Amino acid sequence: MNQMPALLSIITFTPLIGVILLLFMNKNNHSVLRGLAMVVTLITFLASLPLVTGFQSNAEFQFVEMVPWIAAGPFQMNYHVGIDGISLWLVILTTFIMPIAVLSTWTAVEEKVKEYMICLLLLEVGMLGAFISIDLFLFYIFWEVMLIPMYFIIGIWGGKRKVYAAVKFFIYTMVGSLLMLVALIYLYFKAGGGDFNLLNFYQLALDPATQTWLFLAFALAFAIKVPMFPLHTWLPDAHTEAPTAGSVILAAILLKMGTYGFVRFAMPLFPDATEKFTPLIATLAVIGIIYAALVAMVQEDVKKLVAYSSVAHLGFVMLGVFALNQQGVAGGMLQMLNHGVSTGALFLIVGFIYERRHTRLITDFGGLSKQMPVFATIFMIVTLSSIGLPGTNGFIGEFLVLLGAFESNLRWYAVIATSGVILSAVYMLWMFQRVMFGELNNPKNQTLKDLNAREIAIMAPLLVLIFFMGVYPTPFLDKMSPAIDRMIKLSTTKHAARLQQQVPAGLQQMAPMVTPPAMEMK
Amino acid sequence: METLVMPAINFAAIMPETILSIVAMVLLLLNVFVPGEQKAYLGYLSLVGIVLAFFSVVSGWNAPLSLQEGFNGSVLQDNFSLFFKAIFLISSGLAVLISDHYMVKEECNHGELYPLILFATSGMMLMSSGTDMMTIFLGLEVLSVSLYVLAGFKRADTKSNEAGLKYFLLGAFSTGFLLYGMALTYGATGTTKIAGIAAAAAQDSTLAGNPMFVVGMLLMATGFSFKVAAAPFHMWTPDVYEGAPTPMTAFMSAGPKAAGFAAFIRVLMVAMPVLAVDWHNLLWVLAVLTMTVGNIIALTQNNIKRMLAYSSIAHAGYCLVGFAAGNGEGTAGILFYMLSYAFMNIGAFAIIILVGKKGEPNNNVEDYAGFGVKHPVLAMIMALFLFSLAGIPPTAGFIGKFYLFSSALKAGYVWLVVIGVLNSAASCYYYLRVMVFMYMKDPVEEFDWMKLSPPVLLCIAISVVGVVVPGVVPSIILQLAQKAILL
User: Fold this and answer.
1) pLDDT tens across A309-328, in order?
2) A151 in reach of chain B (CB within 8 A)
3) Is the pLDDT score of A406 beyond 60?
4) Where are the alpha helices (DSSP H) in B61-132?
5) B6 in helix, strand or coil?
């Protein structure tokens, strides 16, 4: 390949270099600390741009790096990374959101700035690493590494019930991911050893019973992260208590880990189980869409409302992904990016008014549009994008998801889910109306200042993306579609057929049900 | 005239033990002449002995059998025991490093402490390389008697006295079980040699059904379960760990526990493979009980020493999972895990020692409020140890747990592993709780009484390396452990 060597590693570990630099900085010089974190995240973002230009539109993993890492006993783990069309945009989303997150805390975090920036950068390492891992063991390591900084971000810089929220977040995620680890090791032995290469695992043929259990273990970990109804209860707590940047990262990227996990691992690895559980998951997704919308409607806290809207949006993603056709999965993937942009932007907006008024209760506001016209305009655009108005990014994603679901056997689910689109308009617009319009009768609101240059600079790239992705999503979809095709093919090819082909009759039943694919190393 | 047969004395096989014993006796003599305020020098001298013994352990690795075997087959210093010996030496070395600071703070005359640690260590070594039940028993007694004294070392402190006495009573009780088990086994097989027992069982197929043999195995398992603090034989642990001087708690939770496993593994795996079905099931139950009891009770603890005591029960449970698996990976996992555990647990105790005031009135979790603000580096290191104990990557604790659990999965014990990981998730709660206080609560204290004693900091630094390096690049140690298994 004519690409820069080790580009993915450079991108992933640049933030780690930032962490090491930060460790040796004077903790009282806040502007230097912030500046450094900003520079590091910007460099990471710029370094990730060649990924887009250098990416070939095919289904293969690209920018692949492979170094043997652990070899002991029966195990062989490799540092094996690479991206395909599915992970490409998530990597870019991560590097794109991070500078914005850093910038958003310029004035919001005044205490322990050094530790805060260290946590943010560590988090970035974990997230990027998880998206680029091809070796499943490596993926698990990064997946867990993400947990620690997020735990501290919620727990140290959060609101009143921060400890509760942080511990709940940690334990919930931990239970899921440990069970996933068990399934992962089990899968490894089932594959007859070798290494943890995902591509080899794709070639496995597993009997349906095994698939069911493994799928359940993987799905639990991912469903908690998404989060799917009824495992979503940690999310509103975590979101409400987390500082703005924490919420932005949580919504924009961390939740995508769950949906990404389904697309990358749970579905293509266990197609028979996927088929079996599609009705269940689609049902939960639809319940999530409707239920979260209804709950969002009655929230008094703006941030909680946005948090519940997240649950609803990710319900759409799940529905699209499980439609398992090109439109559905592409829509789901696009909706993941959209949600990252729109909901990230919404949390930033909530952060702006919270920083000014130190309250997020809808009743404390009203008529802000007179006082803050620029803010009102931006807020409106983001709100419409979140609802999915044509011309904004949200529309394309939701439309494709529903289209895909209609064309699959999830038609009736799609019918019900469509009402979620209407409900989302109801709660978002109603909230917008109560906050921005009406009488400006609260004296505290009469002195509010409009957005400053820094805040506009934070929002500007997001607004550009909202329209760009809404009007011209083709570049995104083009790069994704070969990888999505492969994912659909893998997820719909039954293992039962493979089993019959591969295990000649008369061999022992316990034969490791796999043709060892050509190993890439040795 | 009968010719006198010279016993096969082979000092190469017991070289580390010999070095430690000699140094310990020299220390006992010197102790008389060293004035009270300079007892630290005895500590340095004992470190020299430990380092020498460590070199002897390293040089014995992969040695030919003629150098490993000795004393008519009652000692075998194979790779298995060498790996364990390294663990013992590391844990006693780290314990020595943190002892002086603590004992001076507690105003306790501690000249005898170092020889006792060395004697205990040589006892542990004998346990790990003993291939005769008598050798194992002898090693166990040398270890236990030293530990009884060490647990009750703070003479003026009632809690420490209680710890010593309790440990003595229950220890003696459990030794009774062990000895009775050995006697029954001898009765059934006619030999005390581990290899002899295995040979007898291989020859006589009725032995596996012989109640005397089975009960012998059960009684020995009970005795060893006491030593490794497996539930339901764990009752002594919390009180002893809480009452004993903190450096000794750290020591006891790492070294002697590993020694218990060493002997336990050798007796069951080498001597009694014919009873494998029985002891696999037994260990399955023990593992589940131990993990669950340890973790659930740890959840409710407020005293951090007591919390770590219960958590140490839980960690023994994780090791039992690997043991129950009964395969090479399981044993290698135990070796790796006990090594990492020595680092992370003693490291955590070292920080507790630094934070503790005289008489340790501030060992509760609340007393760590704001520690992260006042001492960011130490708090970060404490967090590292706690994350490692909780088994979160990229730390040695994670790799160890991964290895143990995967060995059990390989052997087909899926439910055992599921119970294990759920336990592990629950354990996060109480480890996190310490971090909640360190980072998320406002400081109540100034922590201005803390003296950053260099030896303690050295111990912490070594422990950090011992937790991080095997966590990121575990291959070398895992390969060594894999070479040290018995099968």
Assistant:
1) 888 889 989 999 998 888 88
2) yes
3) yes
4) 65-68, 79-105, 113-129
5) coil
A260-308 pLDDT, tens digit per residue, is 999 998 888 888 888 889 999 999 999 999 999 999 989 888 888 888 9
Tell me what the mean pLDDT of segment A400-411 comes to. Answer: 87
Residue B46 lies in a domain: yes
DSSP annotation of B279:
H
Q: Name the phi and psi angles at A364, rounded to 5.
A: -80, -10
DSSP annotation of A262 reads I
Burial class (CB in 10 A: 0-12, 13-18, 19+), A501: exposed
All residues at 6 or more sequence positions from B54 whose CB lies less than 8 Å from its CB, including other chains: B16, B86, B89, B93
Is A186 near chain B, with CB under 8 Å?
A: yes
Phi, psi angles (nearest 5°) of residue A405 = -65, -40
Q: What is the pLDDT of residues B463-481, one digit of tens each?
A: 999 999 998 888 889 989 9
Give the residue numbers spanning the domain of B452: 11-483
Contact B348, B467 (CB under 8 A): no
CA distance A184 to chain B (A): 10
Q: Are B133 and B124 in contact (CB under 8 A)?
A: no
User: In this structure, is residue B311 part of a structural domain?
Assistant: yes
Residue B422: both structure tokens together:
């759920």
Dist CA B391 CA B414 (whole Å): 19
Residue A516: other Cβ atoms inside 10 A:
12
Pairing status of strand A75-83 against strand B69-70: unpaired
Residue B49 neighbours by CB under 8 Å, 6+ apart: B19, B20, B22, B23, B24, B118
Contact status, residue A99 vs residue A41, Cβ threshold 8 Å:
yes
In this complex, is the C-beta atom of A178 within 8 Å of any C-beta atom belonging to chain B? yes
The total number of structural domains that make up chain B: 1
In a domain, B22, yes or no: yes
pLDDT band, residue A3 (cuts 50/70/90): low
CA separation (Å) from A422 to A321, A466, B130, B249? Answer: 21, 20, 76, 63
B387 — pLDDT class (breaks 50, 70, 90) = very high
CB B274 within 8 A of CB B214: no
Size of interface A-B (CB pairs under 8 A): 95
- The closest alpha carbon to A327, from A402, A276, A426, belongs to A402
Residue B427, burial from CB neighbour count under 10 angstroms (0-12, 13-18, 19+): buried
Q: Per-residue pLDDT for A517 more than 60?
A: no
Confidence grade of residue A521 (pLDDT, cut at 50, 70, 90): very low
Interchain CB distance below 8 Å, A167 and B406: no
The Cα-based distances of A232 to A38, A91, A220, A410, A502 in angstroms read: 32, 24, 12, 23, 41
A162 to chain B, any CB pair closer than 8 A? The answer is: yes
- In-domain check, residue B6: no
Choose the closest CB to B393 out of A112, A144, A175.
Answer: A144
Instruction: Give the Cα separation of A251 and B278 in Å (integer).
Output: 52
DSSP codes joined into one string, A76-119: EEEEEEEE-HHHHHHHHHHHHHHHHHHHHTTTT--SSHHHHHHH
* Numbered residues of chain B with Cβ closer than 8 Å to any chain A Cβ: 328-329, 332, 373, 376, 387, 392-394, 398, 402-403, 405-406, 409-410, 414, 417-418, 421-422, 424-426, 428-429, 432-433, 435-436, 439-440, 473-475, 478-479, 481-482
- Dihedral sign, CA of B401, B403, B406, B407? negative
- Which one of B375, B382, B402 makes the best mutation probe of the A interface by having the most chain A beta carbons within 10 Å? B402
Rounded to 5°, angle at Cα B172 from B171 and B175: 85
Distance of alpha carbon A178 from alpha carbon A218, whole angstroms: 10
Chain-chain contact of A73 with B393 (C-beta, under 8 angstroms): no
d(CA B351, CA A229) in angstroms, rounded, equals 42
